[in-house]
Design brief:
By secondary structure, the protein is an all-alpha fold. The chain contains 17 helices and 4 strands. Strand 3 (319-320) and strand 4 (323-324) form a beta hairpin. Helix 11 packs parallel to helix 14 and helix 11 (278-301) packs antiparallel against helix 15 (393-421).
């Protein structure tokens, strides 16, 4: 049963506000780690920028791939509550692993293999924990509302605000890391996860009857004598840690695995299209088109945490009013713009819709990619204003602004449109394909960052050399994205017809 009192009063259920806080602190934890990840790889573990970029991409890939399995296990066995708690505990342990070497005084120069082990294990646990946590907290929010409740969309808007606030306040972790060391930055991120987990447990009563295991007795069922399904899930989780460690460290294995999965998924969708009606077939074609352009967008967008982060560290004048702002603080610029501009874009789409002028979904995708490309062009042009390889800060801020306005055009409509276009029997599979496309995008983003950070056949030892390389690649990304956006805009009327009335 849902929450009739909330529906009748026009108020949001109390559980929403608990989950808002949980998500905010979990996102603080994740983005606090993400903001310093590439810097930790290059400055503590002493990877070259190219290798660090590939590891960064692999970490992001697994974070987005794991929810496919985590959502399945919650639906069939664990229930949302148990999956969220399990995921939160694993992510907290993962952050603790990242912080441990520095906290206990292990010297990374003399014991690099030990520090690397803690890092890989920590990142593996963060990805696995996110797989249990991320899809199920969103699902639990949805369960708080009755089907068709008009408050549901507004509830998700509030919930997503928590995501961006958490990403914004990650600057706390960035500043702590700059002042006291990376291990304290990871520790701060871990404490954020602990706060989120505590809030979730304290809010249990407000979630009503939702999120419990679909069949508690099934969890106790013994598949192997003496080993229940629940124990098997825990054992599988533990055994997956070394597998994830290998995937993070060996990008070629990760890339080959993603390509193989992508080919299989694509084959299944194409086969389904051959067995579908004309309307279903064309809608599935639209889904493939949106997935392709979404993958391209996020592969470029994710340069924020990798190549743009390295560019900021080495080539941007970060001194404001006599204070040098820590590099990782600039990872908060994008969520700050989202918080400032999100309501404006919501109002703008509503204003245009009332006049019949709101862009259709493919055109919004095109506008998003176009603005993302313009942001990279701005970053690429920054080299024309450099002094000894250092460029003014306003280029970075303007670049992030254009990336954010692009995100606000594309991101809110993507998953929603894909679920609307999917045949009912394929919704879960298509959602899985969408998440896997994000994983593919992060891995591709790591490869792009490697190209930007490690010039082939060229020794780069000066800020000027790195600036030239970064700006060259940023301009190339900009040209590709702008061209892609224009091409998609031209195609948008045809794509809209293939949607057959879905808005």
């Amino acid at each position: 049963m849902n929450n009739p009192e909330a529906i009748q009063s026009g108020k949001h259920p109390k559980g929403l506000y608990w989950l808002f806080g949980v998500e905010m602190w979990e996102r603080f934890s994740y983005y606090g780690m993400r903001g310093i990840l590439i810097l930790y790889l290059t400055k503590v573990l002493m990877f070259d920028k190219g290798a660090a970029s590939l590891i960064y991409g692999a970490c992001g890939s697994l974070v987005y791939a794991a929810p496919v399995l985590g959502g399945f296990l919650a639906d069939k066995f664990l229930g949302y509550r148990m999956a969220i708690i399990l995921g939160g505990i694993i992510m907290f342990i993962g952050q603790a692993f990242l912080a441990t070497p520095g906290l206990i005084g292990i010297d990374p120069t003399g014991s690099r293999e030990t520090v690397l082990f803690f890092f890989l294990a920590g990142q593996a646990m963060l990805a696995i924990g996110n797989g249990f946590f991320k899809p199920n907290i969103s699902s639990l929010v949805g369960k708080l509302y009755a089907p068709g409740d008009p408050m549901r969309d507004r509830g998700f808007t509030i919930f997503y605000l928590g995501i961006n606030l958490g990403a914004l306040i990650q600057l706390i972790s960035a500043v702590i890391s700059s002042k006291f060391g990376f291990h304290f930055g990871f520790l701060a991120a871990g404490l954020g996860m602990l706060i989120g987990l505590t809030l979730f447990i304290l809010g249990q009563k407000s979630y009503g009857p939702h999120g419990y295991p679909p069949d508690p007795n099934l969890l106790k069922k013994q598949i192997i004598p003496g080993i229940s399904i629940f124990a098997l899930i825990l054992l599988g989780t533990l055994l997956s840690v070394p597998i994830f460690m290998v995937l993070i460290y060996n990008n070629s294995v990760m890339s080959n695995l993603l390509i193989t999965v992508a080919v299989v998924v694509l084959g299944i969708i194409i086969y389904t299209m051959t067995k579908s009606t004309k309307v279903e077939r064309e809608r599935l074609l639209v889904i493939l088109i949106l997935i392709f352009f979404s993958t391209l967008f996020w592969a470029f967008f994710e340069q924020a945490g990798s190549s743009i982060n390295l560019f900021t560290d080495q080539n941007v004048n970060k001194v404001v009013l006599g204070w040098e702002i820590p590099t990782a603080v600039f990872q908060s610029v994008n969520p700050a713009f989202i918080v400032l501009l999100g309501s404006l874009f919501t109002w703008l789409w509503g204003f245009l819709d009332k006049r019949g002028l709101e862009p259709n979904t493919p055109l919004k995708f095109a506008l998003g990619i176009l603005q993302l490309g313009l942001g990279f062009v701005v970053l690429g042009l920054s080299q024309k204003a450099h002094t000894n390889g250092i460029v003014p800060l306003y280029f970075l801020i303007l670049g992030y602004l254009l990336h954010t306005t692009g995100e606000l055009c594309l991101s809110p409509v993507g998953l929603s449109m894909v679920t609307k276009l999917s045949p009912p029997k394929l919704v879960g599979f298509i959602m899985g394909a969408w998440f896997l496309s994000s994983a593919f995008a992060h891995n591709l983003g790591g490869i792009i960052s490697k190209i930007a950070s490690s010039p082939e056949g060229q020794e780069c030892n000066t800020a000027v050399c790195f600036l030239q390389r970064y700006c060259e690649v940023f301009m190339q990304i900009g040209y590709v994205a702008v061209g892609t956006g224009i091409f998609l805009a031209i195609l948008s009327p045809l794509i809209r017809r293939w949607m057959h009335g879905i808005k």
